[in-house]
Amino acid sequence: MYRVIVIDDSPLMQRILSDTISRLEDFEVVATASDAFEARDLIKQHEPDMVTVDINMPKMDGVAFLRNLMRLHPMPAVVISTDASRHQEVFDDGAVGFIAKKGIGESDESFFKRVEDTLLRLTFLIDRYQSKRRPKNAVIEIETVKNHPDQLLAFKAPLMQGPKVIAIGASTGGVETLMEIFSNLTPPLPPILITLHIPFGFSGSFAERLDRISSLSVYEAQDGQAVEESSVYIAPGNRHMLLENRQGKYFIKLLDGPRISRHKPSVDILLRSVHNASGSNAMGIMLTGMGDDGSIGMKEMFNAGAYTVAQSQKRCVVYGMPAKAIEAGAIKDVIDLNNIPSTIQKFISYRKN
After folding, report:
1. DSSP class of residue 213?
2. pLDDT, averaged across the chain
3. CA 143 – CA 106 distance, rounded (Å)
4. Pairing between β-strand 249-255 and β-strand 240-246 as defined by DSSP bridges
5. What three-state secondary structure class fits 8?
6. What residues are labeled active site?
7. Is the pLDDT of residue 86 over 60?
8. Angstrom distances, CA of residue 345 to CA of 9, 53, 187, 188, 192
């Protein structure tokens, strides 16, 4: 059961949020607070797994509260507010999700679905937070079901090799790593597709943030979107992203469905789709991350003659995904982070051996 504290100065909104969140299976609202100082005491008392925070509150606004919370007692925090103008600021200060408050005329069911969609995509972060607090003698449940990419996308030999394309997979530490890489890239470049293990509600704002610091055009991917050169497409946090080759032109396809390799979006699904669409005319990059998502798809790309690289351990936050791809024999070159931008730039003139 995920224990939640709702922080909002409106008693009506406290009730609406409490009723809405409590409808979700495995979520329980254990307390409500009207301001940051009341919330501080309730957090100490209840030790919640997550808090929801309004921005406009008396005594201390939600952004200042987030800064203090992340400094003194970091935990998953979702901002639920009418003030969308500061949504980027709250992500910068540690929020993992943003939900606009129930709009005028919006049905209860519509608002519930929006809350449900965001919170259910955050459970993996809450699980990690809970595991860090778990007593040493506690029983640890291990996830045993790992869906193979075959359950969602068939492996196919590319019938028509498309133009050059770059696919990137990342997880823990990926946000900062991608920001460093893309602040050092310049057009012209082939299109770049990114699957990052990131909560729904954060992928869009991260795309906007990356767009601001990069000279490339960065988008949260949309289903059916045409893929263009010198453009970057980030998988939404609640959908698998695929590349489709339609008579030599690339398009984005988004799919719902089960987690693949324990994730949605899955790096394996992206890389397999890139293999199917472009064959050897692709570059695959595995960045910092926990687990082994992507090693299957990267191996398929490698076997097809694509150029595959992995971030070296030197500056990896978690050397899991790159290490697993290397162990699978899926990687041609292992590259330090500071050299990855120049490696990407050179791919435009890369010739297969």
Report:
1. H
2. 88
3. 38
4. antiparallel
5. coil
6. 171, 197, 293
7. yes
8. 51, 42, 8, 8, 12
Tokens standing for 104? 């005028």
Whether the pLDDT of residue 183 is over 60: the answer is yes
| 158 pLDDT higher than 70 | yes
Q: What average pLDDT score do residues 313-333 get?
A: 93
Q: Is the pTM of this model over 0.85?
A: no
Residues of the chain with CATH 3.40.50.2300: 2-133
Above pLDDT 90, what percent of the chain?
Answer: 59
b/e burial code for range 149-165 (CB count within 10 A of at least 16 → b): beebbeeeebeeebebb
Q: What's the rounded Cα separation, in Å, for the pair 214 and 351?
A: 26
**Which part of the chain is CATH 3.40.50.180?**
150-349
Domain 150-349 indexed as CATH 3.40.50.180? yes
Closest of 189, 234, 236 to residue 211, by C-alpha: 234
What confidence score (pLDDT) does residue 136 get? 43
C-alpha 54/C-alpha 181 separation (Å) is 33
Q: How far is CA 186 from the centre of its chain?
A: 24
Task: Give the Å distances, CA to CA, from 67 to 64, 72, 333.
Answer: 5, 9, 40
H or E element at residue 13:
helix 11-22
Q: Which pLDDT does position 137 carry in this prediction?
A: 45
Mean pLDDT within 314-330: 92
Estimate to the nearest angstrom the gap between the alpha carbon of 210 and the chain centroid.
Answer: 13
Pair 303, 273: CB distance under 8 Å: no
Residue 123 in tokens: 């459970």
What is the residue-wise DSSP string for 112-153? HHHHHHHHHTTHHHHHHHHHHHS-TTSPPPPP-----GGGTS
Is the confidence at residue 22, as pLDDT, over 80?
yes
Q: Which two tokens stand for residue 171?
A: 């997880």
Considering the domain 2-133, what is its CATH architecture? 3-Layer(aba) Sandwich (3.40)
Look up residue 167 and give its two tokens: 């696919």
